[in-house]
Amino acid sequence: MTTLNTLSGCVTRYDPQALPVSAAQAIVLQWVTPLAASERVPLADALARVLAADVISPIDVPAHDNSAMDGYAFDGAALETTLEAEVESAREASAREAAAGTLTLNVAGKAFAGHPYTGAIAPDACVRIMTGAPMPAGCDTVVPQEQVKCSGPDNGRIAFAAHAVTRGANRRRRGEDLAKGGVALRAGRVLRASDIGLFASLGLTDVEVKQRLRVAYFSTGDELRSPGEPLDAGCIYDSNRYTLGAMLKRLDVEAIDLGMVRDEPAALAATLKLAAERADVVLTSGGVSVGEADFTRAQLQKLGDVAFWGLAMRPGRPLAFGRIWSGGTPGAGHAALLFGLPGNPVATMVTFYQIVRPALLAMAGAAPQPVPLIPARCEAAVKKRPGRTEFQRGRAHRGEDGQWRVAPTDSQSSGALSTMSEANCFIVLAHEAAGLDAGDAVDIMLFDGLV
Ligand code: AMP
Ligand code: MG
Q1: Candidate of 231, 236, 238, 290 to mutate for ligand 1, largest count of ligand atoms within 8 Å of Cβ
Q2: How far is the CA of 239 from the centre of ligand 2 (A)?
Q3: pLDDT tier at 69 (50, 70, 90 boundaries)?
């Protein structure tokens, strides 16, 4: 056991070579300082950006009571009068059929969205009204046009069953979407399509967002070749840099691709210093194991502080985390958090999603957004020993009974990137959990969401 002094001053006892995932996530978040800088961007460029301050609604939305239907607006008091008259007439059996609670009104004029009706309305009158048109003064209820019978010259009279409408029906109230002076959206919100439209509905043209986080990344390994280059004997194509670039794109950070670095301590140190100079966070892949060509952890130790270098996690055991300084020693130059991710392509992705992604979001100023876990039945037996968290690749589907079911992919190799493309979820096997029998309950984390 080692004592880790975190920068925030907390002191906790952990094994830095085999941290439980939850402890690693907590330590990483302790080391994160959210970006302070912000900038104004036009609405059209605000999608996926992080809101820097609460947005207060400058107006009521909608700005006036308006109709939710195409129909006829009238004073709902007439409904009560009609229904009372019906009760009266029902006492005289002969009049029962004739009365039947029918309300008859004269059409006094028309109201369209953008063209209000401004005249006065008599108690026995109504206004033909279209969806979105302001409610005329004195009207509080709309009867949909499908419910009325029209008669008279120019359909100037309508009749409908008073039972079928309640007072206040089909009227949208002023400020019902957003009230003037209320908080429309809170700081820390990662902006979605609806949010952009919501700002537009408030009449805003631009919005204050956090500056984009700068994330530098590179691959390490003498065996790596770039796509497009010939594949020399014993070499492989560098896929991690492309996976990382794509995952960073999804987070809308400013991604800085620093290419491939050979397994040479001097080259690695130079690139790490350059990365710390230019970025807030540095991601590397490979070279964090205990092999003879694994230099990342040693460099991290030289250029800064190491928090941990191993997780009780599969895939993803070798993961180094800490802080490096562009000047080459702690305190010199610009500091950046460093995640030394494992080289195996699935481990790179799993550690990115489980450890790096929440940290990047927090650093970008986003409010925490836990990824939902969904209960499912596992369709096959799964081997696992307690004492580490596993993120197996699975294919989930919803059965006819509405229950989620999941099948692990045939291969669970951390080198087989195809399993990530084949899968649509992680099967999350908790730290203490042992293996599963077919049919056992398990949590899954779906890859895809709607928005
Ligand atoms: P390492 O942690 O450097 O020992 O790498 C572990 C495994 O991942 C080895 O089989 C490497 O060849 C492979 N690997 C490392 N980096 C990459 C990369 N950028 N793209 C694809 N595979 C990689
Ligand atoms: Mg390597």
Answers
A1: 236
A2: 13
A3: very high
Chain-centre distance for alpha carbon 47:
11
- The pLDDT tens digits of the residues spanning 104-115 come to 999 999 999 999
User: Ligand 1 pocket by C-beta < 6 Å: which residues?
Assistant: 219, 221, 223-224, 236, 238-241, 285-289, 291, 342-345, 415
Where do the domains of the chain lie, and which CATH numbers do they carry? 3-37+212-363 (3.40.980.10), 38-61+176-210 (3.90.105.10), 71-165 (2.170.190.11), 374-446 (2.40.340.10)
Report the separation in Å between the CA atom of 287 and the middle of ligand 2, taken as the mean of its atom positions.
4
Query: In this structure, which ligand is nearest to the CA of 263?
Result: 2
The CA radius of gyration of the chain, in Å to the nearest whole number, is: 32
Residues 358-396 have pLDDT tens digits of 999 999 999 999 999 999 999 999 999 999 999 999 999
Distance CA 254, CA 260 (A): 19
Q: How many whole angstroms from 69 Cα to the centroid of ligand 1?
A: 61
DSSP 56: E
Tokens of 409: 């992919």
pLDDT band, very low/low/confident/very high, at 15 (cuts 50, 70, 90): confident
> Is residue 14 very low, low, confident or very high in pLDDT (cuts 50, 70, 90)?
low
Q: Give the E-state strand segments of 18-140 in sequence order.
A: 19-20, 38-42, 55-56, 66-67, 71-74, 102-111, 125-129
Ligand 1 atom nearest to CA at 342: 2
pTM for this structure? 0.91
Task: Give 238 Cα–ligand 1 centroid separation in angstroms.
Answer: 8
